[in-house]
Inverse folding.
């Protein structure tokens, strides 16, 4: 089996790079924010479509996200509670749009950042919610050849990862006996689009991956607020 090389993408949350609130993220949502964004709140709370990366049936703007007063305006913005997608700058959006992506949308983001002195809020435009369809493995993964972490799971502890031979087996486990088993090796079949520059998994590893092509573009443009490393999950392509 051969295939492309992907790198694991994650936010760079080191305090020396970006402002941190309680050591977790650059920005957060408030009660006042959710009062204004009722449709968005309902969409996220329902979870099924949101967690899968399915497109909402409304214009999912994020207006009034509170940015930490000490946070730098990096190209990737980390927001507490946003489990799917990234907040990205105009220039990062342009780079992403030049790449081969899964089904996706960009939604307007307006950040509110307190002045370092006083109570005035700055309104910061030029950011977008990059939201995309997640890989479930339903048609693209060979489960019988993949491997899953068996320890500390109520089903796999007893029967081992060999009890997962298909997507249906995997779905039954995470539906009836959560959590979803963590993949330590994923074998993708010929249905997977190996030309993708960016993709992420919904349950299998809960990670996002970028191609060497996209990584090179990010480095050349000096994009900030992220880091990459070798995948924690072994990726094999047919």
């Amino acid at each position: 089996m051969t295939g492309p090389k992907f790198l694991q993408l994650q936010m760079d949350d080191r305090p020396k790079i970006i402002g941190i609130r309680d050591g977790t993220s650059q920005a957060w949502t408030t009660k006042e924010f959710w009062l204004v964004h009722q449709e968005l709140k309902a969409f996220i709370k329902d979870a099924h479509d949101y967690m899968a990366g399915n497109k909402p049936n409304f214009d999912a703007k994020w207006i009034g996200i509170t940015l930490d007063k000490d946070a730098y305006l990096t190209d990737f913005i980390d927001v507490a509670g946003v489990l799917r997608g990234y907040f990205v700058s105009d220039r990062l959006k342009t780079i992403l749009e030049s790449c081969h992506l899964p089904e996706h949308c960009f939604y307007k983001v307006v950040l509110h950042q307190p002045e370092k002195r006083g109570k005035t809020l700055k309104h910061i435009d030029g950011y977008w919610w990059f939201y995309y369809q997640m890989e479930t493995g339903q048609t693209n993964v060979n489960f019988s050849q993949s491997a899953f972490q068996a320890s500390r799971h109520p089903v796999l502890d007893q029967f081992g990862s060999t009890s997962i031979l298909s997507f249906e087996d995997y779905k039954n486990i995470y539906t009836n006996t959560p959590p979803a088993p963590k993949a330590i090796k994923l074998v993708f079949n010929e249905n997977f689009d190996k030309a993708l520059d960016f993709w992420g998994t919904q349950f299998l590893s809960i990670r996002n991956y970028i191609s060497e092509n996209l990584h090179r573009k990010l480095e050349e443009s000096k994009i900030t607020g992220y880091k990459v490393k070798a995948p924690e999950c072994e990726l094999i392509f047919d």
Observations:
- The mean pLDDT is 88.
- Residues 147-186 form one domain.
